[in-house]
Amino acid sequence: MSNSNFKEFTKGIIKQNPVLVSLLGMCPTLAVTGQAINGLGMGIATTFVLFCSNIIISLLKNVIPKEVKLPCYIVIIAGFVTIAEFLLHGFMPSLYESLGTFLSLITVNCIILGRAEMFASKNKVLPSMLDALGMGTGFTLALFLMGSVREIFGSGQWLGMDIAVFENIKPMTVFVMPAGGFFVLGCIIAFLNKIAGKRPPQKTGCAGCPNSSKCLRDSEEEVLKK
Amino acid sequence: MFKVTASPHITDNMTTQKIMLCVIISLLPALIGGFITLGLRVLTVTLICVVFSVLFEYLMRIIMKRQNTISDLSAVVTGMLLAMNLPVTIPIWQAITGCFVAIVIAKQLFGGLGQNFVNPAILGRIVLMLSFTADMTTWIKVKHSGYVDALTGATPLVSKDASYIDLFLGNTGGCIGEVCALGIIIGGFFLIFMKIISPVTPFAFIGAVAVLEFIAGNDPLYHTLAGGLLLGAFFMATDYVTTPITSKGKLIFGVGCGIITFVIREFGGYPEGVSFAILFMNIVTPYIDNFTAVKPLGAVYIKDEKEDN
Question: Which residues in chain B are contacts of A226 at CB distance < 8 A?
Fold first, then answer.
């Protein structure tokens, strides 16, 4: 495997992690990670769809007309989602039940459509495969990590196993709730930024503040500019 | 010597520390009321909450390499308010978890006092409420003759069996700070007379709940005295940092809190909705401020002119 191809694989895991850096695919990330096993299942199902659709789209990139490329991508992705859905329904019915409608919603997952548009439609088959595997691994790891944290703190279990510490201390149900999902995601992103050595912008300015349009300081600054 | 500066020229020696001291004093009557009704453990829970709030604040300021702010007493107020929002039977480690959520997550992670977008004590209470619902809704059943029974009972909001005088003096079950309506009212009026808080928010809040309950066919006085409405209206909905600045904004804030409280009490899954109502209105506060911004005398907005042209 050449060096550049290897980079296509590794970039999705941490450097361009679809969930923790690009903040794509928030819907499944927050919705199904109440338990670690659900996060893992969702991640693997998405990786499967991403892998297959990236191969097909990369093969068909010269055939698909530019004008109707999005519908074509969706049809291809939806086909593989249907396969994944039937496979899970047949072989892992409990996981199928717990993922519910979010399994079908893989079709409109930003990560898959994003990789199809940004990468597979512009690159050859091998890099597209590696890109899909890397992105899928990054997505799965992020979901598994979130699911683990939320399950351990929220229900005192990990992958369905009881944890000894939580026999005396009650787990905090809030972690399994949507609010806990946002909180855990924020903490993981903050932790990752800390490891990566990213610094927050020194001057954030007034642009992000909802009061900026009426804020006196803001209008004074504008007066000074005039 | 004299300093020449641009306006506004504020000549007031009121400091954050003095304001917080006034709030602490105003919280004492309700706390004493709770102590008389619920017993010695009130003091233990309050002390634990205050000590750990200050400790978390101190440690967070060191970790974040900021100037230490425990002397402004805001952490003490947060700890007291959190303790007053807990049932007296709460396990100590849960109370400490609540302090952690209030001080570290709600306050210091956003930059400390003045930067927090929600009331820290409210967030601490709600996280505990959602996490340990059973422990947070277990109240000591108080016999109306005055002594405390070991049995647990429902909040008077659900049981609807307490008399007005019991609710007023605090011979009911409930969180530490919410049982004694008299103590809360004394503390609240002290704050209003000291001009620490504006009377607009609490009266709009209580008034909205009373009017809506009256329209819905319930007893407005009972719904005012029972539950955490008075505590929330006087001490939580008047927090400087997380509520609107203008009087009109305060009115909208209070009425909004009242409507949400009424909806949760009558139609929601939880018996009490004051804390959820205040949390929700905390989040929309910047928009209320924006909506009710007062145009200074003679000011011209550049942006409006551009739109006209």
Answer: 302
For residue A123, count other CB atoms closer than 10 A to its CB. Answer: 18
**Looking at chain A, which residue has its C-alpha nearest residue B92?**
A169
Q: Say whether pLDDT at A81 is over 90.
A: yes
pLDDT in tens, B24-40: 999 999 999 888 888 88
Query: Cβ B290–A216 below 8 Å, yes or no?
Result: no
Q: How far is CA B97 from the centre of its chain?
A: 18
Q: State how far the Cα of B190 lies from the Cα of B234, in Å rounded to an integer.
A: 10
**CB under 8 Å, gap of 24 or more: what pairs does A181-186 form?**
A181/A29, A181/A30, A181/A31, A181/A33, A181/A34, A181/A146, A181/A150, A182/A30, A183/B105, A184/A33, A184/A146, A184/A149, A184/A150, A185/A19, A185/A29, A185/A30, A185/A146
From the list A213, A223, A226, the residue facing B290 with the nearest CB is A213
CB pairs under 8 A between A and B: 43
CA distance B11 to chain A (A): 21
- Please spell the DSSP secondary structure of A5-47, one letter per residue: HHHHHHTTTTTT-TTTTS---HHHHHHSTTSHHHHHHHHHHHH
How far apart CA A150 and CA A178 sit, in angstroms, is 10
Q: What is the ipTM of this complex?
A: 0.76
B111 in reach of chain A (CB within 8 A): no
The fold of the B16-291 domain, in CATH, is Ammonium transporter fold (1.10.3430)
The H-assigned helical ranges of A60-100 are 69-91, 93-99
Ordered by start, the domain boundaries in chain B are: 16-291
Is residue A174 within 8 angstroms of chain B, CB to CB?
yes
Q: Where are the beta strands (DSSP E) in B135-229?
A: 139-142, 148-153
What confidence score (pLDDT) does residue B219 get?
Answer: 85
Segment holding B7, helix H or strand E: none
Domain ranges of chain A: 3-196
The partner residues of B148 in beta bridges, in order of sequence, read B142
Q: Could you tell me if A105 and A94 are in contact, meaning their C-beta atoms sit under 8 angstroms apart?
A: no
Interface test with B, best of A211, A224, A226 (most B CBs within 10 A): A211
pLDDT digits 0-9 by tens, A190-225: 888 888 777 766 666 666 665 566 555 545 555 555
Select from A125, A134, A150, A123 the least CA-distant residue to A30.
A150
8 Å CB contact of A174 and B286: no
Q: List % helix, strand, coil for chain A (3-state, nearest 5).
A: 70, 0, 30
* Whole-angstrom distance, CA of residue B86 vs CA of residue B80: 10
* Interchain proximity B130–A214, CB inside 8 Å: no
